[in-house]
Amino acid sequence: MDGFLPHEILTMITDKFSDNSATLYSCILINKNWYSAAIQHLWSNPFTLLCAYRYRCVDDYRRKAKNLLTTFIECFTDMESIKEESVSLYLERKHSKKLIFDYSLYLKEIYFGEVQDLLCKWCHLKLDDCKFSHDLVDRMAVGIIRFAIQYCPRLKTLFFPHKFPSILLIQSLAFARDLPQLRNFIWASHYSHKEVFIALSKVAHNLELISVDFRTRRNCLDEGSMDAFQALIRSQHRLKTVRIRKLNIGMDFMLELLQTQSSSLEWLSFEHTDFGSDDSKFGPFKFPQLKRLKLGQCVTISTHGLASIIMADLPNLQQLIIDPGITIPIKFMKQMLQKHGRSLTSATLKLSNSNVDIVSSICQNLRQLDISMSKELIMPVVCMLANIPNLHSLTINSLSERDPPFLGNLFNELAKHQLSHLHDLSLSNMDSCHVDSLKKFLSGSRPPLRSLTIGRTCVMTEAHINVILDHLKDTLKFLTIYFDINAVSTKCIGRARRILRRFYRPF
Fold first, then answer.
1. Structure pTM?
2. For residues 305 and 255, what is the distance between their CA atoms, to the nearest angstrom?
3. What is the largest CA-CA distance in the chain?
4. Binning pLDDT at 50, 70 and 90, where does residue 114 land?
5. Which one, 10, 53, 248, 388, has least CB within 10 Å?
6. Three-state SS sequence of 129-197
7. Which H helix or E strand runs over 271?
8. Cα angle, residue 205 at apex, residues 202 and 206 outer, rounded to 5°
9. Domain extents in the chain
10. How far apart are CA 480 and CA 428, in angstroms?
């Protein structure tokens, strides 16, 4: 390896291995040029890198956790001070290390849970045994996060679970000079929404992702908190993603607010959100850059709210995710697919007799499809799949509670059509099937599968595994199936591991 490559090439190489700490550590040993390129990745997200790396020796892991935490803390203060001052109103920086040893010049991402976990490992504690705000580990974790907010101007991501005290977050944001590079803010809390939003809107104006779990679905936010949330959204210059959980709000009101970011907004996600009755008369709405829309678990939406989404102008919508548990009237689902289906390349839908034909005729650009269906729809759904010319990835979830004929009938119908572009297939919540049906499907459809996943409710035998390997040995790389470990020979398992890149049996 040439140690004197141009800086641009070194940056490209280290960027590619930014999540591989072992490779980055090797890079810093080559020479000072490699060191300067690699150290930025090692020190921009050190807690995640250490948490992601699995050490066989627990003592070695604890030693590395201690070294990282000690080095980080001593960039700002001494060990004793952080134990005592973590709940103070303002954290004064007592230490300032030399350039290459100062984490505050490099740190970009910090997650409260990871810091807490490393501290527990260091102190030989189990995370479940720690009572927040009453023990040393949690006080130190809070102190580390607060020092990062106040003194690390290159911070790019802040992640706070509901356990992080809102009052300390407010204080830290209030004393932060500025966070010009902050792009991602993820937060969950029952309390102090107004104060957090006000403090954040003063120091961060370039957020690209705002993810808030309001944890108040049964109640609406008070007027002050809602005004502060509006001010935060409107204060951003390049907002791309908004994720909302557990909130009661009118759909028109939400879309009217988000339309202030329509020139940059690309992804909207709602989960456990109640879009109840809304008397607002805004719209029609236009989001020219929106590419992904998700209506996730436990979303309740009124007919007026559905109409607002249907009538919205979404010319570049590529991915539509509608959780199977959401009840959407047939008429509205039809209208939604007719209005937005032509641009979709990815969809997650619950299929019914009324929308199978619409997907088949309108959604011709789909490359990825995740569907939930009953066994009565097997034949029309298979015809629909055969009519989508460039379908690369398919996930089918059975709603028939593992009725015995489902998987066998599905394979028999699929065998009648060529699926020459299908690379990834995932089947879940299904019964076991006869090996002949599987063989008929693979020989009839001849799909060039690279990945095959069959849920653990379907028990495979050695015969099934051999059929899969015989037909897909030239293309298949990843196989996830459930089988009785005592009923499959070591020879068969060895063959699978030689052919495949990954052979996995879920527990």
1. 0.83
2. 10
3. 73
4. confident
5. 53
6. HCCCCCCHHHHHHHHHHHHHHHHCCCCCEEEECCCCCHHHHHHHHHHCCCCCCCCEEEEECCCCHHHHH
7. strand 267-271
8. 155
9. 1-44, 351-507
10. 11
Q: Output the CA–CA distances (angstroms, integers) from residue 309 to 303, 330, 342, in the order listed.
A: 10, 15, 16
CATH code: domain 351-507 is: 3.80.10.10
Residues 6+ away with beta carbon under 8 Å from 71: 101, 103
Could you write out the DSSP letters of every residue in 1-22? --S---HHHHHHHHHHTTT-HH
CA distance 364 to 344: 8
Q: What is the pLDDT of residues 208-218, one digit of tens each?
A: 999 998 877 55
Contact predicate 33/3, CB 8 Å: yes
* pLDDT score recorded for residue 476: 97
**Quick one: which of 107, 133, 136 has its CA closest to 120?**
136
The model's pLDDT over 234-256, given as tens digits with 9 standing for 90+, comes to: 999 999 999 999 888 888 888 88
* Residue linked to tokens 């591989």: 20
Q: Please, which residues have CB within 8 angstroms of residue 117's CB and are 6 or more apart in sequence? A: 51, 127
If one counts every other C-beta atom within 10 angstroms of the C-beta of residue 117, the result is 19
Give me the residues paired with residue 185 across strands.
158, 210
pLDDT digit string, tens, across residues 165-195: 788 788 888 877 788 899 999 998 877 789 9
Report d(CA 328, CA 301) in Å as an integer.
8
What residues are paired with 186 via a beta bridge?
159, 211
What confidence tens digit (pLDDT) does each residue in 487-504 have? 899 999 999 999 999 999
pLDDT, residue 396, reads: 96
Contacts of 348 (CB under 8 A, 6+ apart): 320, 321, 322, 323, 369, 370, 371
At 15-43, the pLDDT tens digits run: 787 777 778 778 877 887 888 788 777 77
